[in-house]
Here is the input.
Amino acid sequence: MKEGKSASQTVYAIWCVILVSLAVTFFLAWQNHHYYTHPSVVMAKSALYIDEYPVEGWLLWQEEVISAPLDGALKFVNGGKVARVAKGEAIAVVQGRNRRVVWAPEAGYFVPALDGQEGKWSFGRLWLDYDDLPKEVRAKPVPQGVDVKRGSPIGKIIPLPQALRCVFYTYLTPKIKENLERNFLWIRFDERDIPIKVEVLAKEIIGLKARVNISLMPYFPAHLTVDRKLRFMIYEGRRQGVLVPEESVIFKEGKQGVYVVSKGMVVFREISGVPTEDKMYFVDDGLLPGEIVVLKGDKAREGRVFLW
Here is the structure.
């Protein structure tokens, strides 16, 4: 009796396992079917994408070091700030046994700061020894009221007008290569600025990069005179397209695309574009503003759907 009862319990347990397994299988099948036929979707939103990337370059200008005419206490006329001065304008006073005024030898920017590269900074050095240059070359202000010795440097004059130049490396994208062949580039200094066209004075192709010397004329604001390194953007152009979540974009059979919902059907459509910030993807070909896309592309498939 006990053996028969034990066998019955075993059979009962097996049937329970089978029934639970079938229930789970049917539930998962229903869940998958429901997900495929009722996917989460998003709308492609109109967007503008700007093709540009940051670069760093070294600035080059002509300059003349100004020296103290005698021993004494130094006082700058403009309070120790970079200022545009006329030829013959007073830029400093040295008070010692005598009082001597320092006059601007030329019109331009008077910079009451020094970086130690005065007289050493040249186009030849920038062009030939670019990789061996210091990481930063920023001028240190000459203190107001400091005691100076006769002949010691107290600042420098950067004559104006003159063409401010910049030497840098850039990647050779198709657009950059095309523009370099025409001896110009488009750049901008801030995302709020409009691009400006600059003349290419010299260029050298080195593998996938180019070494370039450009003229920034007539751009030459005073704040650039205290740092020989310039950070800016190489601008290539802008494209009109749409934005979708990055997770909507997948690769299928070697093609990049998204699942688009149209007339109750989900179909895979090939696209082209680039990833952007905030886990979004800019599509410049293959999608129109307002089209509906399945949110999770890796879990979607073609077929009929019911969104509402």
